[in-house]
């Protein structure tokens, strides 16, 4: 608890203004948008929750509905949510399928692609478009 209070006390002592609505580096960030699965001619809404694990590394969970069933694919990501490259790997709930995603963040918007890893080969599966909050 002390580690979260000390920076606030120091900032106040130095007269540094605190932005109460600002996103802290240790807080999860949410992105909302859509996915397309070009092989199956399917598109849908997507919500991604990025939880920081270190400098430029994240745990990520993709929440979406596919064939009328809700899913959460989870894994890790690396990159910058404020701008630049972002990539990662997620698995389905049973951990039987693995997907990679990669793309670029610009003006709080991520545009990229996703692929499935099948038998050691990477097969392109579609695109992702997300707007990152905060």
Can you walk me through this structure?
The chain has a single domain, classed as Lipocalin (Beta Barrel). Helix content is 9%, strand content 61%. It has one helix and eight strands. Strand 6 and strand 7 form a beta hairpin.
Summarize the structure.
By secondary structure, this protein is mainly beta. Helices cover 9% and strands 61% of the residues.
The CATH superfamily name is: Quinohemoprotein amine dehydrogenase alpha subunit, domain 2
CATH C-level name: Mainly Beta
Q: Mean pLDDT across all residues, rounded?
A: 85
Looking at the structure, the CATH topology is Lipocalin
SSE topology:
Elements lengths: L1 H12 L15 E9 L4 E13 L2 E10 L2 E11 L4 E8 L6 E9 L2 E10 L2 E12 L2
């Amino acid at each position: 608890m002390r580690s979260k209070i000390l920076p606030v006390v120091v900032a106040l002592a130095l007269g540094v203004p605190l932005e109460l609505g600002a996103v802290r580096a240790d807080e999860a960030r949410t992105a909302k948008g859509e996915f397309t699965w070009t092989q199956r001619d399917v598109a849908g809404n997507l919500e991604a929750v990025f939880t920081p694990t270190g400098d430029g590394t994240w745990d990520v969970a993709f929440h979406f509905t596919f064939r009328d069933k809700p899913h959460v694919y989870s894994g890790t990501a690396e990159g910058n949510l404020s701008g630049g490259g972002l990539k990662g790997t997620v698995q389905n709930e049973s951990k039987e399928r693995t997907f990679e995603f990669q793309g670029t963040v610009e003006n709080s918007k991520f545009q990229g692609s996703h692929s499935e890893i099948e038998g050691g080969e990477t097969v392109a599966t579609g695109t992702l478009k997300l707007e990152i909050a905060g």
